[in-house]
Amino acid sequence: MHTTITPFTLASWKEKQPVGRKKFGWQGTSPEFGDIRVVYPAGRDMPNAMVTEVRGGMIPTAVFETRGVHAEVVSMPTINRSTLRIGDGLVRMSRNRWAPTHGGRSLRMTYLGDVYKLKAINQRAYELSRQADSEDPGAVITVRQSGLGSGRRMTVHAAGRVLPADVALAVLFTGVDRSVLTRRGAVRAGISRISNFWAESQA
For the chain, give me the number of helices (H) and strands (E)? Predict the structure, then answer.
């Protein structure tokens, strides 16, 4: 079902668990798709794994999982060494990590025959597009962060008629480290991970 959607906002939240890691995320309400909640780390704590999950009344559940020793020193899943599922379906992902431009470094995804591209606009904004085909003109969803601290917000705008999976994918990436989608961000992320590994080894 393709739908034209009204812009909506997700607010940041966090909660301390009795046991285990603190949980973080975003939550809000889309007039067309109902309440939406992003949480990370989601599920039970597992060694060498970090998971983000999005759920909503009218969107499919999507799960992004990073595995590896680096998952122990990051605050949210990273695009490197990760898997993505929508419901029970696997989303295929690929990207050119050596490309010099934001467009070239985009994350490309395929799900149920639809082709998507996740592109960084800047450090605080990104764009998810679904490629047009002979039967569908496609859609573009833009997500922008504003505010600081507990007042942070993610505003979601869509151009075109979107599918529930489009919305699930777009908001899921509010809880994923997207820094590698820019050259500068990739360098910062690499330095940060090296520093965190060193700190962990000294603890």
Answer: 2, 12
